[in-house]
Fold these 2 entries.
Entry 1:
Amino acid sequence: MAGMKQNIPEMPSTLSIGSVRNSGDASVIAVTKQGELINLYAMFRSAIIGLTLACSLGSAQADDSLVTLLTDHWKGGDHSVLEGGVGEFRFEGGNGAVYDGGDKVGEAIRDTEAFTVAFRFLTEDLEQKGPARIFSISKDTSHRNLTIGQEGERIEIRLRTTKTGRNGLPGFSSGAFLKKGQWTHLVLTRREGGKMVLFVDGKKETEKTVPGSLRDWDPRYSLILGDEASGGRPWKGSLRDLVVFPRAISDPEAMDLFRGRGISPGKETPLTSVSANNPNAVLFETRVATILTQHCLECHDSATAEGDLDLSRSLTSHTEDGVLVAGDPSASLLWESIEHDDMPHKRAPLSVAEKETLRQWIEGGAAWTIDFIDPALYSRPVAEIPSRVRRLTVTEYINTVRDVFGVDVAGEAKTILPAEVRADGFSNTAYNLNVDLKHVEGFAELAGIAVNKLDVGAFAKRFSNKRDHTDKTMISLIEAMTPAILRGPPVEEETALYRGISTAVASAGGDFDEAVGFVIEAMLQSPRFLYRLEKPVHGDRARRVSDFELASRLSYTIWGSAPDRELLKLADEGGLDREGELERQVARMLKDPEAVSQSLEFCSEWLNLDRLSFLQPNREHFPDWDPALAAHMKEETLRFFEAAVWEEERPLGELLNARFSFLNRDLATHYGIEAEIGEGELVKVELADVPGRGGLLTQGSLLTIGGDEASMVSRGLFVLNDLLRGVIKDPPPCVDTTPVPGSANQTRRDIAMERVANRSCGGCHAKFEPLAYGLEKFDGLGSYMSRDEHGNVLREDGEVLFPGEAAPVAFDSIEGLMDLLAESDRVKETITWKIVQFALGRPLNASDAAAVAQIHEEATQQGGRYRDVMAALATSRLILYAAPAPANDN
Amino acid sequence: MKTTPLSRRTLLRGLGGVAVGLPLMEEMLPSSLYAAKAAPEIPTRAFNVFFGLGIPAPVQPDDFSDVLEPLAPLKDQLLILRQVNQIRCDRSGMNAHFDGASGAFTATPPDGEARAGGASLDQLVKRAHYPKGTPEGIVPTLVSGTFFRRSRVGRYVHSYNPDGTVAATIQERPRDLFERVFGRVELSGDGDEREERLKRSVLDSVMEQYHLYTGANSPLGSASKERFKDHLDRIREYEQRSFAVKVDDPRAPALPPPSRLKHGGAADPGGEGIDITLEELTEAWRIMADLYALSIQMDRTRFGSLTFLAAGERIRLKGDYHYNGRLIHRFDDASQLKASGSKGCSHEWWHKFNEEKTNEQLRAHAHMKMREVAYFLQRLHEGEDCREANGKSILENTMITISTESGDGRHNDVKRELSGVFHAITGANGRFKTGQVLDANTEGLDLYNTMLSGMGVKEKLGPQDRRHENLDSIMA
């Protein structure tokens, strides 16, 4: 039906990952008149990456339109639509049916090196040979990518790889299971690496490894049913329920397909909150909210609401008279004031493009789809950050070398490699993990160091008992070592390069160990070792990651290191897809000490504890300062975190108010805590009776954030940014940001309150400085006092303004503030956000919001502990799926 | 196709317009630096020249005609030896291509898959004549060649120490050969030069891998690709800093252009054979042959081996083959064999050899190989640069042994396969007969030992208790 396509809403291709009911590659289910559940063309969402097709699903949920859609995309052939409304092809030995869009299928499969084809078929003749083509991606009888055909009572498969050549020969056959006139369900799946499995009625029938790569697949070949593209190999029979995925599926999934259940790994939440069905809403969520955040909310959010205008909520922006008149920009105050640059006040005007976006949005109906505009989500454009490949951080590099080879290069790596630089609050942020000459030199040198420390012979023995230089031995050894070292299946060209090194060593008279050593040295500098490489995502739909990719994602997320043998074995077998296996693995991994060290790495990064190594207080102000205290403070926080998270398994919110810590005599004395503690080792100290102490914010490691002057600004900003995920703009240029010291009749709070009251500063400062009021009794190095150095009496009461809220909440003591923070949903959510950000290596934005919210909710239900967040994260879409790259990144 | 041979002069003008030549300044140098060149006597030199797959014994003519036609211009400088058998080189369980190739110039069966059974001819001559090592400024042993298949070292390396280990690292790219002869690697650490060269081959492979991810077929998105390009740039910078080649011989020619062929592991991944045109093959080979000959002319090397196609080489050759204005054959192995992959390679003509038939393709390949062997030999014979103090050419003054892997291509009979293995030798400054085709009726071992004794080498190849049959017929 030609009209179908026209009914599809036009949308930017980057946005259509949204609200399709069954996102990802779950199935589209239709119910036939017989009441049977039919898994109908999930290929439209997963294999066929054509944008029109993918988009059309969103609106194609009415039962009969699916079938129309089906026939709409096939040309020729003797296919028919059955009366029951189910697409079924009946081939009577004439020409086949060609799919319109086969090139996209071919391209997707070529790139993922894996696929699944599933269908139900019925043969009318057991004498058919040729093989008679049932399903084929081919050009003619001697050029093909893939053919599934009938050869008498067997199914014959021909697959083109770099090893089998352009006609996919030799092929392989199933057993003789075909029965005339009987519907049979067939699934053919191929894993990256070459393992192929044929399932018949959900059960494994034949297994075969077809070596080689699919990179020679010619995407121009037709996807055809019932015959060869050039004719001459007709098949007689019927076919329905065809699905093609550009990935392998697991055994249970094959059974699901047989049972017509469709396959739906993971959860069914959309990857984004973007409302794909309404273009105006899309515009709002992807661009307008960002523009409002960047230009308006500084003054017009719930808290400040200059001129009583709150542009962060629909309630006020739409109901205030004339602010937003849907459909009529000229009548809208908002448009009027920005059009002539009356607004933003004292900030740069909006660009022409931004204005045009706002105008279009108002004209199109000024859709508003969310509760309130949270600047944490919208401060950067949704598609701003292309997905970037992640280089291993120095820590990950050290961990990986240790876990893969059992060799410790920590000392050397920390000296040789440049230290990572923080960006967006973490030093593992992918866009900032660049490569300098020092890295390249360092990786080369470290590779040599690692190999020197390695017992190469013993290592090689894990993979091969043979020790010679022949092609056979070396190539199989390289292929066997590849998953263990490079975390993925071997790739022919790379194997050849490694083999080249071993021959170079052999022809220089080197022995087996030396050859393998140099091969490992090269592997250690491979992009696949140094980066976390993943296959690309085609089109605009998220792709379920491959088994090896999943193994790596899990291990780097939970351990900060390479997958271990168990994970790799499961990845190789496709076992991670087994019912409950993922959860089992996550539980197993969380018991490993590496999960603890990775959590401490997170803690250290989140709270920027490395800062303490550079603490140099002013000697005049702090004559008693002992530099060893900085190290003790860092250790205190890490020990506290470990105890709270792992030993006491507390909910993460309690990191803010748990009344214990780890101290030694020096640190206790410095804090002014009287306790019987020895020198040296830090020991656990209960703080229930110690006024003002308990929780991260009362530890020296965080109190020193304010510098010598205990800056309310720095402390307040930390709480706002890192605990409340608030967003505040940089101060306007030419503002003197030097902290103002207290004086004989003015405490620091007094000074802060002046700033907050000041008209030009208060709009922003009111949002964060009061957050530090409760910490006033701690000096710049974390000592507790009731009067400042000038003798002014210090207070500990104050108010917290949670982002998005209009009114602050009061507290009357340090403990009160800590309890308020610990119980705040915003704080708990933020900790989840930070953990997720650290795991993904990129700042989060609006498109992540729904997934993170689900992770948080699930973790909260399980107890809100670190392990709960990790478990929810590890089984979330953010880990199971690779998001499509923005449209401009392909 | 390149028809003008690269002389020292043309190299100095810059190969392919890539590099600027260096001025010839040897007269400005203290003579001690290049003492070897200044010495008036003719240095003792020995080289092995290997070509892959061989010429079946029944195809070898008794004169300089047919497949040996290209050697005719050098007939007075060569002694062709028929009926030389290498059966003792057979090692059961080992591929005959490999056994035969390993036996060439050693006359012993291989010792495992990476070692020869003993020394090669050139190395024994070297040890006898330079017991304290070759003079300073000379590359002790130069091993090079144009080849693709590399499963076993013996297929392409043809200089071996007495313990069977390779005598020198093979230089397979023109630039590698150039650097080995005229340059020295700046050592970045404490490692020795061999280690540095291997590290460099590691780095080459790393660069290749980044190429895979930054090229047109890269699977990465643009942002990631850019990052990898950055990484690749940094690797290049690192390479230049750490492995910069310093040319310390002012007489050196310009750096040759980068090879257009693939090398190392990528040359023939999996041994399935490669598609190559006659032009590509001969161009690559002739640059190597030119550089190798030049290094002999400049007395930068006196011993070593040169390989034109590995034993059991698998190429699918295409191109019209003309010789002296005559079309000899139109190479198109895959089409003529009606097969792809390894089954479509010229190698198959040897497997299909049939005495009763014309074996047209095999003969054409063999003819072409002889033309290319002759090309190298002529570089040591023609022109003033090749004239030595005694009035003879380098070719005439040097012991050069030319051989191959088999005397038949069919694998079903080892005896037949390792009998009648083609050999040709030069006169070695009047020591051996030249100018004829001789039916030697001998074992390779006796031939080699006769040659060694002719060169004044006391040591013998093969089992030391074996009774040696001297081959008087080859002695001048």
Entry 2:
Amino acid sequence: MRKRAPAGIFAALLVAALLVVGLGGALKVEAAVQVVLEGPATAEPLFGTVTVEASVSADEELERIDVFVDDRLRHRHLEPPKEVWIEVEVDLGTANREHRFEIVARSRSGEVGRAEASSPAFEVGEALDLNLQQVYVTVTDLRGRRVTGLTAEDFQLEDAGVDQELVTFASAEIPFTAVLLFDASSSMREGQRAAAEAGVRVFAEGMRDLDEARLMVFAHRLVAQSPFTEDPELLLQVLSAVQPGGGTALYDHIFWAARALEERQGRQVLIFLSDGADVHSALRVEQVREVLRRSPALVYWVELPVPGSNDPSALRFHSFQPPEEIRDDLGILRKLVETSGGRILTVGSPAGISDALEEILAELRDQYALGYYPTEGGEPGEWRQLELKVRGLGKKARAREGYFVPASL
Amino acid sequence: MWRLRQLVFRTAPCLKACLIACLATCVALGAVAPLRGQGGPGDCGLPVSKRYSDILDLEALGDREGALSYLVELFACAWETKGGVRNELDQTVRDWNDAVAEVCSKGCLVPIISLHSDLEVDLAVRGRETARRRAKGYMEDTLRKHLESVARAEERDELTALVYARIGLALRDRTILEEAREYLLKAVKLAPDDPSYLHALGTLDERLGTYGPAHDQFEKLLKLDPRDSTARLRLGLLSWRLSRKKEAREHLETLVREGTPPWVQELAYQELAQLHLEEGETEEAAELVRQGLEAFPQSQALGLQLAYLKSKTREDPIAVLANIALNPPPGSPRYLDDRTPRVIYNQWPENELAPLEESWKKRLEESRKALSGALSTLRLRDRQ
């Protein structure tokens, strides 16, 4: 009994303390915009169609309410009433992954209220069929024109020298998630904004259902970015806020874009527009290589001309690296792009950006997706070289050159 | 008579201004005959001496732009015309220098030295190497002539170093780097303890990729002032480039502890972390980056380094990246003006010669007045 008495006192003190904290909370001034996420319940993993529900109330007129699922804008309610109930149905698909729900309400005076919740992925003790390898392939003929209409039988794939049986095969209409990485210092120079905007519009309007893209504009630091979206206007909004100029920290932002893509499902594409000369990144090109070689993303480089590139001293402007090192780094970057299965499209001026992006889009449409289970798993961290052959005279297949065996397999 | 003199006296400044304006307009419109070579092959129109005299007038009046464009044109004309005009120009410059020096001992040649320095830079920018060397000869001749009138050796060195450093920096800013180095090296030899010249030469050597000499300049700077953080930062990074990693680490560690200004300290965190990574010390690198982020929470570079390190150790970097993404505020274009440490490092040091420039400007203004007087005296003497 003696032992219970102090516990009772502590419990009473605790209750009192909680009451004080509660009262303190109640006395706080309410936020101008309140958002409560009512559903779905996020304690368990979620699949298929779910309804996102939220209540929003504000002291003043609301400008808009945005519903994001997995950082992608799924619904926008413009000029809603001061008190409103939101219900939005979304298809989460069947992938086993975390899902993030976020409701953001903004009042006319700029006050923002938000609520968010995340559902977990289904825990699996051992990797099941997670080692399915996907290879995205572009096939061209002798003239470099893309070849379509091939079947699984036209391909022969070797993984680390061992023939593989294709278990999945798809062509055309494979959805993609892209990051468009624009260098504000080289693609947005005075008078070239229109070309950059036209390029983004061409790309965004060419996207189809389930495709999505994020635009990141960078200089020596990130200048602006959009969420992953299929809405061209959201992407263009980002450009409208950007001023050209600044330095180039390309490697930092390639790393960032690659990591952002890792959160997404399916075919990942990284497209960067830059002259490539980087002397402002905190990360070294070798570190970016390390990350990109582990990434499944196809990398495309729309290479813009280096200003004053006719001048032999054009690259001799920086203290961090001598010109020969900058050139070596550019060589590594080129190799990285090729290794990923993407390619470099050199444009003479920003006016060519639209054509280049249109070409990339067309190439993505005409790609084949080959899926297989490697017959030999390989050691975690091991590099597995891929050899891909395609039947038919003069036909060439371009795909990523290999992959690292993930640690979890 | 008295009234007439009053009228002339009162209208003199206006007349002078009108004359300058007319001359400038004529030069701009190309209406002044001497510069356009109206005289046909073998000559450039008016006598070279007359035109050089007009140029000196403009310089004495403080119109450097006009004087320089006039001089560049005269130089180009002399260069393109056969028939010994070049030699005539050489002789003219020498004669005027002698004449001005003879009637004036108060630095009258300083504006002419400065004008000829600008001529050399202008010709270098245009890539006219042979002409540049000739212009350099003019500048050296004028400088030598001027130095003959300076009594103290120290003052002579000081002035010469400043003239050389100014040309060096002007060439450097126009990315004519090798020639810029020649001048800055001369300036440093004449004034070995002047931090401005050492900084200028060190950063130039660094950019030229001549890391050994650059290391030497910053080492000297640090001996002159051990609190010079910028010199220490460059010395640290140069030591690393020269594979003296222990030395590099010591300098960077000092800067992490006590570096100022903040951009130097932030960059020291980033680079020291990279140095640890290169040595395979991932945990130490991560710890440094975390400390750096505590000191500089808005640093995107440190945030990305942390995300990279987390990827390396197979931790999830997404939260770190999301945190950095929040850093650029709405209306982020202003961030383009917000220079990161790396951007600052890659730019030439600012205001290197600011105090010296100030005294030079003052000296130039005084000397122009003296030159104006000297030119009037010479003309009066000619008439007599």
